[in-house]
């Protein structure tokens, strides 16, 4: 048994398909199938049920997959410890971003990160918070930029910035010419929101409920851009994170107004596993991200 065999086994459990698992491991399907059979022979147990078209693991197979995940996570930690002996800002770094942060933050930071740390090789992933947390726990990514929520409380979180949310209304709305709107004025209003699973939805709704507003149950979006387009089409209003707002406060059919009393906002952090030996690397990265964002946001902490 070797580490590669465990990677094949875990990939098969994740993809539930031999060809897809083989592609994920960059090997041929016969190679992966053969190694799984070899592992079964070596262990003297059946890991898969062979009488089904589907990939079905036996009880012993499921237990081995669970243990293999733990072993692979520890192997990754060992590799991180080894890489720390050299230049801490060189080599691969796998970073995750939530969808309401990635598209708007990355243009602000990628060029500066590459300039500051030319030997750092970035691999970027965009997924919802619960998926990024799972990837972190399984050692598939090194760190993640996300909004601080209960799901991330067991991780080490390095504060990056506090991001205000602005009120976005159609350009022909009665408030369109205003500079700011107190949150109390949203009382009785219905706002367009992202679908369940997006942490921004929960954070925005917290402020809306406190102001006496609610969400428009007729519409649930899977992306911030869909919500923005619905506002532009005159179908309602919403709260938009400041990094997602264009320089012109009136653009593409949408007017952006500063929400006040209180200013709705969210805390964005760089999260990593508590046991990671690359804490110094994450700290340097967090410092650069914070510097870049402070030049962009109009409201400081």
From TrEMBL:
GO cellular component: protein-DNA complex
InterPro entries referenced in this protein's UniProt entry, alphabetically: LysR_HTH_N, LysR_subst-bd, WH-like_DNA-bd_sf, WH_DNA-bd_sf
Keywords from the UniProt entry: Activator, DNA-binding, Transcription, Transcription regulation
Entries under CDD domains matching the protein: PBP2_OxyR
Domain HTH lysR-type residues, every copy: 1-58
Keyword Transcription: yes
Pfam family, one: LysR_substrate
Superkingdom of origin: Bacteria
GO molecular function list: DNA binding; DNA-binding transcription factor activity
Protein family: Belongs to the LysR transcriptional regulatory family.
PANTHER family: HYDROGEN PEROXIDE-INDUCIBLE GENES ACTIVATOR, TRANSCRIPTIONAL DUAL REGULATOR HCAR-RELATED
Protein known as: DNA-binding transcriptional regulator OxyR
């Amino acid at each position: 048994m070797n580490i590669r065999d465990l990677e094949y086994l875990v990939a098969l459990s994740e993809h539930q398909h031999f060809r897809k698992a083989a592609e994920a491991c960059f090997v041929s399907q016969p190679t992966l199938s053969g190694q799984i059979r070899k592992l079964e022979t070596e262990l003297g147990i059946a890991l898969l049920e062979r009488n089904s078209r589907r990939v079905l693991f036996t009880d012993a197979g499921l237990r081995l997959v669970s243990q293999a995940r733990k072993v692979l996570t520890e192997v990754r930690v060992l590799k991180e410890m080894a890489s720390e002996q050299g230049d801490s800002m060189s080599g691969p770094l796998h970073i995750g971003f939530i969808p309401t942060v990635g598209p708007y933050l990355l243009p602000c930071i990628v060029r500066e990160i590459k300039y500051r740390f030319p030997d750092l090789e970035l691999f970027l992933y965009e997924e919802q918070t619960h998926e990024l947390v799972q990837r972190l726990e399984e050692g598939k990514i090194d760190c993640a930029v996300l909004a601080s929520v209960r799901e991330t409380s067991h991780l080490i979180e390095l504060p990056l910035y506090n991001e205000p949310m602005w009120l976005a209304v159609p350009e022909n709305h009665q408030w369109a010419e205003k500079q700011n709107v107190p949150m109390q004025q949203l009382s009785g209003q219905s706002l367009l929101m992202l679908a369940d699973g997006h942490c921004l939805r929960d954070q925005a709704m917290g402020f809306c409920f406190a102001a006496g507003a609610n969400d428009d149950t007729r519409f649930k979006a899977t992306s911030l851009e869909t919500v923005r387009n619905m506002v532009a089409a005159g179908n309602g209003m919403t709260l938009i994170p400041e990094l997602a707002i264009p320089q012109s406060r009136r653009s593409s059919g949408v007017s952006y107004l500063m929400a006040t009393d209180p200013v709705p906002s969210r805390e964005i952090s760089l999260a990593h596993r508590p046991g990671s030996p690359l804490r110094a690397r994450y700290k340097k990265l967090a410092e650069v991200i914070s510097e870049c964002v402070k030049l962009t946001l109009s409201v400081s902490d």
